[in-house]
Every structure is written in structure tokens, then in C-alpha cells.
Design a protein that fits this description.
The structure is a single chain. The protein has about 400 residues and is of the alpha/beta class. The chain has two domains: about 5-190 and about 305-395, Aminopeptidase (3-Layer(aba) Sandwich); about 190-300, Alpha-Beta Plaits. About 35% of the residues lie in helices and about 25% in strands. The protein has an eight-stranded mixed β-sheet. Strand 1 and strand 2 form a beta hairpin. The structure holds zinc ion (2 copies).
Length: about 400
């Protein structure tokens, strides 16, 4: 396949050295959720360099900037996330993280650099730009519960001027570099968290008959939760329940009075989300009661289901077909159980979340792995995608 070469792709390619240097600066100084102060500084400097006047906030590390404030056409909001992960980098890149235990292992360094690249092109577009473009640099996507989108929305990031469309993208090694993945309707799951405190009596491990054993009860709870998945919902409706942490005990010969289980629940349908929560609460109570133990279940609703507007997705796919070439677009075959707080913007404004190809044969580990390193080429496609889609959505 020949490389795509629409006007925005050509412009993005000429910006590649600049985007690469932004990306490397973000990458070598990763910051975890809600601690993105240095990242914010770099964004503010870059945006001022483009002639924009970024807004920053007290107690919130997001950055907002608007291109073409005075224009009267449709308002497009573009979002990039900012945070890194508690991962020890092993990519061997010359610009690898300088902080051990922190890494841009989810490609948010690429997302920010693509958005800056698109901003550079759009702010130079002159009268061809018909409406305002809001640039949303959002912290804390990885935080998982409150996230950064909620607090950003509370600060009016999609208001005044009110956004008509919202677009976002995420790199993925599952789509080849240079390509863009899209999907209409539901795309990513709702993510909830639970914590189960299983209480027993505690005491000498050589005398287990003297009281309920919290370790055994916790083990039965872990097993029993899988029966919730297999028996409490329609098999064709995707659900995941996973226990990711088990904490309890101090030494081998003492039964602890309490074992704490933490886990995640992924669902797609609102009614399934309600059912799973209800069934987990009930099932846990019954399981531990049968062993004489007790349990307290805390259940927190996290990010909602990510639903792409079918109409906006169709328009964006049409626009990108012209820019990138139809062969460079791929319809994603199925929903995924991962979650994204971009879903919160899509609850308010129609838009679409695209998957930016970062897969390279024989290279790049999976997202969140110590070896995940999207190639620079994804910056070209990512910036061109945002700029072309913005102009296209405003034009029609
Ligand atoms: Zn991630
Ligand atoms: Zn991510």
C-alpha cells in the first residue's frame, strides 16, 4: 500500500521534528495522575509558542486553550490525556523516563504531541477554519474512578463556546502504524471497583476450628465471583469480574482477622451494571455466612460505557478516507473491556474516539507494559487525523 498523503498528512510530516521533540520531553519526564505539573508547564509553553492563551486551574492540572475564539462556526473539542503510569521503563529509548518507577507506558505522551501538532496546523489555517477549536489537555485518565474528565467538565471545558463535537484518540499496538481504527456505538466498557472486607476471628493457625477463617472465606469469595459472571447474566452480554488484589495476614502461623479483596467489574449495559452489583453484594454475604464469617462490600461506580455517535463516526470516517486513504482505516471488529474517561465527554456531546495505529511487527509491547513505545510515525497520522477531522466537521 502506498503511504497516504493528504494535505494534513503532508503538513503533519513537516511538523514531525517539532512533534518528536515535544514527545521526547513529555516521555522523559513522566508524571502520575493529578501530579502533571511539569507536563502542564511544558504544554503551556508550547501553546504560547503557537500564539495561544492557555487556561490553567487551581487544584487541577488540566490545560485548556481555544483556537479561533471569534469564529462563529461549529465548535470542535479535541482531547488528549496527560498522565503516565507506575511502570519501570525498559524500552532502551534515548529519551526513556528519567524517573524510575514512572513511565509513559500508555502513549499519552504521543496523544499530547499529536494534539499540539494539530493545534499548530489549525492555528495557521486562517479563514479556512470556520469555528472555534477547543484543546483539552486532560490529566488523570489512568486514575480510574474520578478520573480527569469529570473535574474538567465541572470546570466548563465543553462550555462557552459550547462544543458541537468532541474527538479523542488512543494509540494501540493492535492496529498497524499509519492506520486508524474506528467503531460506531458502544466501544469500551463501564468500569467499577469493589473492595470486600472479609472478617473472621483471627488466631493461631494450628487451631482453625476455634473461629471463622477469613482466608478460606476470601478464597471462596474469589471463586464465587466467577459464578456471578457465568450464571447471573446473558452469556452474549460481555462482563468481566476480576480480583486484582488480596491482602491479609502477617506470618504463616496466624490466621488474620481480616482479608481485603479489591477488584474491577466491566459491563456494557446499564441494567447489567446494576444486576452485577446487586448479585455481588448478595453472593458475597451468602458465601461468607456459610463459613461463619462476615463481609462488608464497598462498590464504586467508575467510568461509564464509551459510546461513539454513529453519525459523527460515519462523517469522520468519510473525511479520513479522503485524507488517509480508505485502505488506512479499519473498522474495529469488537468491543473491548478496557475503559476510558473520554466516555464522560461523549455522554454530553456527540463525537468519536479513534484508535491510532502504533503496531510495528516485532516491536512495541502491549499498552501499560515496560517496553511499549509507539513509533514516531504515529505522530504524523495522529496530528493529521485530528486536524483533518476538525476541518471536515466544521465544513459540512
Ligand atoms: Zn492506560
Ligand atoms: Zn491511555
Amino acid at each position: 500500500m502506498p503511504r497516504p498523503m493528504g494535505p494534513w498528512t503532508r503538513a503533519a510530516r513537516s511538523l514531525l521534528p517539532q512533534m518528536r521533540s515535544w514527545r521526547q520531553a513529555f516521555h522523559e519526564e513522566p508524571e502520575l495522575a493529578n501530579e502533571e505539573f511539569r507536563t502542564r508547564e511544558k504544554l503551556v509553553t508550547a501553546l504560547r509558542g503557537l500564539g495561544l492563551e492557555p487556561t490553567v486551574y487551581d487544584g487541577f492540572t488540566g490545560v485548556l486553550a481555544t483556537i479561533g475564539t471569534a469564529r462563529s462556526g461549529r465548535v470542535v473539542a479535541l482531547r488528549a490525556d496527560m498522565d503516565a503510569l507506575p511502570v519501570d521503563e525498559r524500552t532502551g529509548a534515548p529519551y526513556a523516563s528519567r524517573t524510575s518507577g514512572k513511565m509513559h507506558a500508555c502513549g499519552h505522551d504521543v496523544h499530547m504531541s499529536c494534539l499540539l501538532g494539530a493545534a499548530a496546523m489549525l492555528s495557521r489555517a486562517g479563514p479556512k477554519l470556520r469555528g472555534p477549536v477547543r484543546l483539552l489537555f486532560q490529566p488523570a485518565e489512568e486514575e480510574g474512578e474520578t478520573g480527569g474528565a469529570g473535574p474538567f467538565l465541572e470546570r466548563g471545558c465543553l462550555e462557552a463556546p459550547k462544543a458541537d463535537f468532541v474527538l479523542g484518540q488512543h494509540v494501540t499496538p493492535d492496529v498497524p502504524t499509519g492506520m486508524v481504527g474506528w467503531r460506531k456505538g458502544p466501544m469500551m466498557a463501564a468500569a467499577d471497583r469493589f473492595r470486600i472486607r472479609v472478617r473472621g476471628r483471627g488466631g493461631h493457625a494450628a487451631y482453625p476450628h476455634r473461629g471463622p477463617d477469613s482466608v478460606l472465606a476470601a478464597a471462596e469469595v474469589v471463586q464465587g465471583l466467577q459464578a456471578v459472571v457465568s450464571r447471573a447474566r446473558d452469556p452474549v452480554d460481555p462482563v468481566v469480574v476480576s480480583v486484582g488484589m488480596i491482602h491479609g495476614g502477617t506470618v504463616p502461623n496466624i490466621l488474620p482477622p481480616e482479608v481485603v479483596l479489591d477488584g474491577t467489574v466491566r459491563t456494557f449495559r446499564p441494567e447489567t451494571r446494576d444486576t452485577i452489583e446487586r448479585v455481588i453484594r448478595k453472593r458475597v454475604r451468602h458465601i461468607v455466612a456459610s463459613l461463619g464469617a462476615t463481609a462488608k462490600v464497598e462498590y464504586h461506580r467508575g467510568y461509564p460505557v464509551l459510546v461513539n455517535s454513529p453519525a459523527v463516526t460515519e462523517r469522520v470516517v468519510g473525511i479520513l478516507g479522503e485524507e488517509l486513504g480508505e485502505d488506512w482505516l479499519v473498522e474495529l471488529p469488537s468491543v473491548v473491556m478496557g475503559a476510558e474517561d473520554f466516555s464522560r465527554y461523549l455522554e454530553r456531546v456527540p463525537g468519536t474516539f479513534l484508535k491510532l495505529g502504533a503496531g510495528t511487527p516485532g516491536l512495541s509491547g502491549s499498552l501499560h507494559s515496560p517496553t511499549f513505545l509507539p513509533p514516531d510515525e504515529s505522530l504524523v497520522t495522529g496530528a493529521a487525523t485530528l486536524a483533518a477531522a476538525t476541518m471536515g466537521l466544521q465544513a459540512r
